[in-house]
Every structure is written in C-alpha cells, then in structure tokens.
Amino acid sequence: MNTPPSLLEVVQADFLHSFMFDMGRYLIGAGLIAAAVWLLSRTSWAARKIQRRRASRADFTREFSASVRTVLVFTVLAMPMVWAFQHGYLHQWSGTLTPLSYTLYLAAILLAHDSWFYWTHRAMHLPALYRSFHRFHHLTITPTAWTAYSFAIPEAAVSFLFMPVWLALVPTPNPVVFTFLALMILRNAMGHAGLELHPRGWAGHPLLKWISTTTHHDMHHGSSYNHNYGFYFTWWDKLMGTEHPDYVATFDRVTGARAVADQPLTTSASCQTTA
Ligand SMILES: [Zn+2]
Ligand SMILES: [Zn+2]
After folding, report:
1. Ligand 2 centre from 168 Cα, in Å?
2. Distance, CA 196 to ligand 1 centroid (Å)?
3. Which of 39, 60, 157, 196 is the most exposed place for a label (fewest CB within 10 A)?
4. Domain segments of the chain as ranges
5. What is the pLDDT of residues 195-236, one digit of tens each?
6. pTM to 2 decimals?
C-alpha cells in the first residue's frame, strides 16, 4: 500500500491546479454576470440599475485584487483539506448517484451554506469582529459582479471553512460539490451585480420571495448594513426580523422601469455599522 503524501507533497502536486480552478471559477462566474450586466445596460433594463452611484475604477481595482487574494487564501486552505482526504480524515462519497440523490444532496448543501453564510455574516457584524473580518467587504458601497470575492483575509477563511466542515459531516458526491461551487459564485456575482436581474414581482411573490435578489444584497451595501444578511434565500432575514422594511418596495421600484433619477440616492451617509 502506498504511503499517503506529506503536506509538502500535496502542495507541490495540487497548489497550482487548485489556484487555477478557483481563479477560473471567479473569472468565469463574475465575468459572465458582468457581461450580462454590460449588455443589459444597453437596453431598457438600464433603468434597473439599483443605485445612482457608479462604482469607480478604484473600487474595481481594490475589489479585483482582493478577490485574487481571496482565491490565494482558498488555495492555501485547500491544501490541508486535500491532505485530510488522502490520510482518511475526510471521506470521499461512494455509491451510485441518481437524479433524486443528486437533487437532495444539492438542496441540503445549499440550505446549509445559506445558514452558514447568514450566521457567520451576522457574527462578523458584531463590533468585536467587524473591523478585522468584514469592514473590507463594506468598503464597497456600489457593488459590481467583481465584488464577489472582495474579502479581508479572515473573512475569506470563514468563507472557505464551510467546505471542510460540511465534508467532515456529510461525504458528498463530487458532481454535487462541483454544481454547488458553480452556483455559489454565480449567485454571489448576481447578488453584487448592481442591476436587478430578477423578474418583476419576484420579491412579493408568495413562493419566489423566499429566493434572494440582487436588490436584497445591494441594499446591504448601499442602504443599511443592519439588514439583509442572507445569501441564496431570504428566510433567515424574514425569520430573524433583519429584512430591510423597504426591500419589497425598493425591488418593485427598481423593476418598475421607472427612471433611475426618480429613485432615492443610496450612499454611505445612510449606512451604519452596528451588530
Ligand atoms: Zn456583499
Ligand atoms: Zn455585511
């Protein structure tokens, strides 16, 4: 039987590959949403721009370079995870994947990640943690798709940690993990797109309202740091009373094709940082 590789050997064999995978995931996910926004901005959907303010070149440079740093953090932290798989501390899923089991695994990991995101996000807004963990992400007042990974190093680590914690508890088929990682970056980039991408009536619809929108997370950046902490879904915010009271009205206004100039200006002046 072969001796499992040392951590150094894992780094030598997998570091570059892992970095390229996560970098590619960010560039493709954020790039696709940025391209969609660019194209839609040349149509009547331009009126769906959520804020009047435009992200500056300095915003883009800061967010893009921080996102590359986040990919580097993910890669460094992935090495012990790969090592743990090869030493039997984490277990590969084995079995026959059916459409039903694929769907159930995917639903479970999305629900778990949504909860992880909501509660770690709220924790990072606590005064004791905010400055070192989450302040950097909130330097962004007007998000774009490229804001997706704009995290300080500690927040990038918290974001990464979901994966090993989940895999330690639930060995998960690789196709499910791959779909989850693809959906995660796409929803993240959509949440930061700056242009509402969801159909009219979504936020007030009896079923669809439970799925988050671009306006939902945009308001967390541009209107109030104390509301809208969720990621894929809105139920934690609804359940915990942290959904912005003007969320549905803002969504309806943004998607109502009303001129951007009629919308209230959301700026950092209205933002507060409290727990
Ligand atoms: Zn954000
Ligand atoms: Zn926040």
Report:
1. 27
2. 15
3. 39
4. 7-270
5. 999 999 999 999 999 999 999 999 999 988 999 999 999 999
6. 0.89
